[in-house]
């Protein structure tokens, strides 16, 4: 590279670095600082606050609601990862075949994914409404239930309801990534396998799945990161209720910070979420490096 181009390279590098430091690095650092301080409405505007070390973390871990919400978050993320990959792979395989209207259907799926999460939450809140919801109307007309199911107000199924909604919302993202990887698989491999007498199941098992391993791992990491940040959709549907049955870590952090005004505890909960997302992000980056080397 010519020496005259080096200053321009530094300028182009400085722009994204400055953006990351200002909009990502500083908020993360500030959250970590607040998590070891006693921050309330009386001193939040001051930069001088009592340092309490790990007391916020101890209080969070000892809180029964945190333990319940942490388990909810693990279940919510785990089911979303498995379901979005399985359904996304199935839909991607379906659309990998040429048929009339395939492009239109793919576009409709992506259009659903591009909707704001609050809009999707409001839509699914209407679908799961007890009295006039589409889900209960369909189940009643089919004779599967005698009375309306309390999808969002029953603690036993509230988490299931928001999980279904989030799977529907996030699945098109997984599908489009997997579909792109399917296109990259050489058609010659399938043709050779077909000539050797391999059936559809054998071709999927010995050609498709091995070729998609890195992509599926990357998709699992991305779905985990996005699902760990889920807030808008759950807030629109249940606000974490009833009795924290559908609550997750980002929403619990919001509740402590902006409803109970315990900003230090809210920051500590946010730190737990950040650590999980950071570890998964490292796995995702390593997956990308391995895929690039191979």
TrEMBL record:
InterPro entries: MetI-like, MetI-like_sf. GO terms for biological process: transmembrane transport. The keyword Nucleotide-binding does not apply. One of its GO terms (cellular component) is plasma membrane. Its main location: membrane. Pfam families: BPD_transp_1 (PF00528). Belongs to the binding-protein-dependent transport system permease family. This is Carbohydrate ABC transporter membrane protein 1 (CUT1 family). It comes from Chelatococcus asaccharovorans.
